[in-house]
Amino acid sequence: MKIEEILIYSLLWALILWVATKVITSTHKNHPPSPLALPILGHLHLLKEPLHRTLFTLSQKHGHIFSLKLGSRFLVVVSSPSSVQECFTKNDIVLANRPRFIMGKYVGYNYTTLGLGPYGDHWRNLRRLSTIEIFSSTRLNMSLDIRRDEVSRLLRRLYQVSADGFAKVELKSVFSELTFNIIMRMMAGKRYYGDEATQNSDEGRRFRKMIKELFELAVSSYPGDFLPILQLVDYDGYIKRIKDLGSKTDELMQGMIHEHRSNKGDLNIKNTMITHLLSMQESQPEYYTDEIIKGLIQVILNAGTDTTAITLEWAMSNLLNNPHVLEKARAELDKLVGQEKLVEEADVAKLPYLQSIISETLRLYPAAPLLVPHSASEICSIGGYEIPKDAIVMVNAWAIQRDPKLWDDALSFKPERFEEGKEMSDQIYKLMPFGLGRRACPGMVLAQHVLGLTLGALIQCFEWERVSEKKIDMTEGQGLTMPKVQPLEAMCKASQLGKKLVSEVVWD
Ligand code: HEM
């Protein structure tokens, strides 16, 4: 026998043995059901965008708890309220970890940030710290003026083009700039989007470039996360790109910290998150390091901007496709807020229909359709199946929130379903746009303030129409936060009330 033949035979035998071992071990282990896997790749070839739709199709065939082998990693997908309940009650602590993807090493301070860090003392401290310094009602009240100011700038911008009649406006970038400016002002006292002065500053340009790269890289999935051997060769330069991005973001945020240190006492930055954290650094320097502060800025930028902006875009798209809902919301605002003032964040609590519009938007178009991946810190069980240690666990919230077994007329946009507490009693495990359990979104209240205030003000101040008879295309594009495939454009015209409110009053 020639040496090549011996080699081929040995390889074949190794492959047969590998497949046999896999079949025997997986059948013995009572793992959740799974499609037939390819050697080495497993089910990687099945993953097509948008991922939540692919996983939904697989769940139709393999059940509400199924598993996939993604190269060297094990993924479990749950798509029913009962399995979600198990994840976030008896397994909540075990599943409170996050899986590690290489991006988190170079751009997420070696997996030490609030969003990426493992469950434990460090994460608990970050969570407590961010609750006190950013998300508490005291801090949210202190930053109320920032949100009012940014929304009133948005209203003026739209008013300028639409005071004399209907004008076409592109809303995707308008909402994105709104949320970035709100978050950056709350954290660092900075506006990087909008007026000319901001547009032209070198720092602003660097920031916008960094954000663009960050979001582009975050969207692309990296095969080396599932086939680690690829990391050794960095075949497409991905690791080099994320290392460069990591250094650039670090440099920019370090600059903000230096600026805060040298401008202590400046009124513009008196109440920013960085100022508060630096004062804590003075008393406990070993814990409140610059790295912790930079990690927090970064997580909040990533988690708190696009999510809210995209939800605003979906909500307005739904209103344009359902003019009767828009009119009902306007009537509610007229009745409960009146004709003399702009809606305030505090008013939103007494506007049930506006809140129902937000809930219904988040039900059909959750900004994080698969939540954020969890990881099992030890073996656990879901639905009687064994979930191995380090398995990635994903919740298909999108599928549950559209399940016709759980919702009447599931695919129609009907805010009325949430009115007067209808659907409220049993909805905890069937409506979870902000996640559940220990790792649930800490920014929920802030997000709801921004959503309620912005939508309320847009409805009060403008008339809205579609750019043509055709309904707005509601197809989802590719991306972490379920964007619309077509950025939203609409026709807007300042209403009588809008003319009065925007030109005279706005907020003091
Ligand atoms: C409509 C807007 C938003 C939606 C739909 C949303 C949704 C979510 C979801 C689903 C998770 C993951 C939950 C899980 O692990 O199961 C999450 C985590 C997180 N969100 Fe939000 N979010 C929004 C806005 C915000 C805002 C405004 C902020 C901050 C300003 C924020 C900060 C965070 C952080 C820091 C985490 C990570 C928490 C952790 O890992 O411990 N989010 N969000």
TrEMBL record:
Annotated residues for binding of heme: C441
Cellular compartments annotated: Membrane
Superkingdom: Eukaryota
Cofactor(s) it depends on: heme
Gene Ontology MF: a single term: oxidoreductase activity, acting on paired donors, with incorporation or reduction of molecular oxygen
Cited Pfam families: p450
Gene3D superfamilies (alphabetical): Cytochrome P450 (1.10.630.10)
InterPro entries per record: Cyt_P450, Cyt_P450_CS, Cyt_P450_E_grp-I, Cyt_P450_sf, Plant_Cytochrome_P450_Monoox
One GO cellular component, as annotated: membrane
Keywords, alphabetical: Heme, Iron, Membrane, Metal-binding, Monooxygenase, Oxidoreductase
Family indicated by similarity: Belongs to the cytochrome P450 family.
Protein name (record): Cytochrome P450
Organism expressing this protein natively: Gossypium stocksii
